[in-house]
Amino acid sequence: MSSSSIVITQPQARELLAQVDVPQILRKLFRDLAAGKALQPAQQLVEFPQGAGDFINYLGVLAEDGVYGVKTSPYIVREQGPLVTAWTLLMSMQTGQPLLLCDAGELTTARTAATTAVAIDALAPLNARRLAIIGSGKVAQAHLHYVKGLRDWQSITLYSPGLSTLDPQALAQLKSLDPRLSLVESREAAVHDADVIMLCTSSAGPVIDPATLSKPALITSISTNAPRAHEVPPQSLNDMQVFCDYRLSTPGSAGEMLIAGEQHGWDSNSIVGDLPDLLSEKVQRPDYDRHVFFRSIGLGLEDIALTNAIYQLQH
Fold it and tell me: Which residues pair with residue 99 across a beta bridge?
């Protein structure tokens, strides 16, 4: 690193991210993508020899801001369980010098949740009132933080298989996130009559089946490092209006899309739109004659945009 560059640790990143409007930064990013002012190549997966894990590189260019960067995230297989870390390197397009190296743990949580929030704002019915969350970890809590003000939610229900193992302090902390939040004992209770269902898990396989829902809903889903991870049954894509964060990269990485294409006759050309389409108003808000599914895999550009925002705070 050059003498003028900075290393930001996870606690510092958390503190600095609280000072920036994360959803607004992401909205600008997706508009820049739509306008050709930003570039997002496909993510790059590299496997370690002898099944020792892998790493994913997420690249991106923000031409208007004069920066590019790479987020690298290893998945390291260990006896005591896999280790996942991530770091984002921000580079200057003017000098070719590194500007910032940032622990991307907090960035990943914030951009994952805020991307879902941007999608919900663009896709959910304006009269949506019932929000359901599957998951209770940091990512699920960040999702609630970013979406709680997007609609006039009358009820917010949360289910996670791990709820029963939480200590009283952790349960109390969860309940304190929003006065409308109810912790429920089954996923069926959580998703009953929901308008928006946020899947916020690290599950490698389906956590809900959209076919069992009582009415059309917006279902959002995120990624985890497990190979071909998916939170809905792949065949369900054929029965939903499908949107994603970025249509040029998501279908090549999202587990359910890959499996649906190989085994269930689904075609990625049927994706209705992505966030650049939605935020540039190239694609309209869907009607809800059937479920709407939004899938994000996380873009390197999102981490790079947030790293750049942190860098700007320092200068």
Answer: none
Six-digit token pair at 286? Answer: 């869907």
Amino acid at 314: Q
CB-based contact 298:249 (threshold 8 Å):
no
Say what the pTM is.
0.92
Task: Collect all residues with Cβ–Cβ distance below 8 Å to 231 and sequence separation of at least 6.
Answer: 134, 199, 201, 203, 206, 207, 208, 221, 222, 256
Cα(19)–Cα(203) distance, integer angstroms: 31
The structural domains of the chain, ordered by start, are 6-107+301-314 (3.30.1780.10), 125-298 (3.40.50.720)
Per-residue pLDDT of the chain (315 residues; tens, 9 = 90+): 444 558 999 999 999 999 999 999 999 999 999 999 999 988 888 999 999 999 999 999 999 999 999 999 999 999 999 998 999 999 999 999 999 999 999 999 999 999 999 999 999 999 999 999 999 999 999 999 999 999 999 999 999 988 989 999 999 999 999 999 999 999 999 999 999 999 999 999 999 999 999 999 999 999 887 889 999 999 999 999 999 999 998 999 999 999 999 999 999 999 999 999 999 999 999 999 999 999 999 898 999 999 999 999 988
- With a CB cutoff of 8 Å and minimum separation 6, the contacts of 111 are 22, 26, 298, 302, 303, 305, 306
